[in-house]
């Protein structure tokens, strides 16, 4: 693909690109700070006349991972695809909502004292004999 223009970024935000083009744009975004800056400018321009930033984010294809998914991400309990997506969303796109959400979750997760961890481990040890514990059951539901 030739240089990624403002127009292409707009199509990207509209989800109007083919899958191949989309992944090329995402690849380029990962690599280029100036392109990420341009994306933010384009998004801000589109934001004008909108009711709220939140409305934009919900409508955009750059949909936010759920709080649950962010929690699992912090615990490194997500599959590679989701990990990749969340990192892209947080770092490359720099979603302010998810960054705030993540900071909040981090605070919560730092809380557990060693006691809590021991208790948790005991729970898993005692449950392991009776239950099949795995991450298979739930879909990541993107
Ligand atoms: Zn987000």
Give the percentage of residues in beta strands.
under 5%
Percentage of residues in helical conformation:
55-70%
The average pLDDT value, as a whole number, equals: 76
General shape: elongated
When the domains are counted, the total is 2
Which H/E pattern describes the elements? Answer: HHHHHHHH
Q: For the CA atoms, what is the radius of gyration?
A: 19 Å
Largest sheet: none
Structural class: mainly alpha
What is the number of helical segments per DSSP (H or I, 4+ residues)? Answer: 8
Distance between the termini: 28 Å
How many strands? Answer: 0
- Bound compounds, please? zinc ion
Low-confidence stretches: 132-141
Detailed description of the structure:
- The chain has 142 residues and is mainly alpha-helical.
- The two termini are 28 Å apart.
- The protein is built from eight helices and no strands.
- Helix content is 66%, strand content 0%.
- α1 crosses α3, α2 (19-31) packs across α3 and α5 packs across α7.
- It has helices at residues 6-13, 19-31, 33-47, 53-59, 67-74, 80-92, 96-110, 114-128.
- It folds into two domains: 6-59, no CATH class; 64-112, no CATH class.
List keywords for this structure.
142 residues; mainly alpha; 2 domains; 66% helix; elongated; binds zinc ion
Quick summary of this structure?
This protein is mainly alpha-helical. 66% of the residues lie in helices and 0% in strands. It contains 8 helices and no strands.
């Amino acid at each position: 693909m030739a240089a990624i223009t403002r127009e292409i970024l707009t199509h990207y935000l509209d989800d109007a690109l083919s899958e191949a083009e989309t992944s090329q744009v995402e690849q380029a975004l990962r690599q280029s700070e100036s392109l990420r800056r341009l994306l933010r400018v384009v998004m801000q321009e589109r934001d004008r006349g909108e009711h709220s930033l939140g409305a934009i984010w919900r409508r955009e294809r750059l949909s936010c991972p759920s709080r649950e998914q962010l929690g699992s991400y912090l615990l490194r309990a997500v599959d590679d695809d989701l990990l990749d997506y969340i990192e892209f969303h947080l770092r490359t796109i720099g979603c302010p909502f998810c960054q705030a959400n993540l900071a909040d979750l981090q605070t919560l997760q730092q809380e557990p004292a060693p006691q809590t961890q021991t208790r948790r481990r005991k729970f898993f040890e005692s449950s392991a004999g009776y239950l099949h514990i795995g991450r298979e059951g739930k879909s990541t539901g993107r």
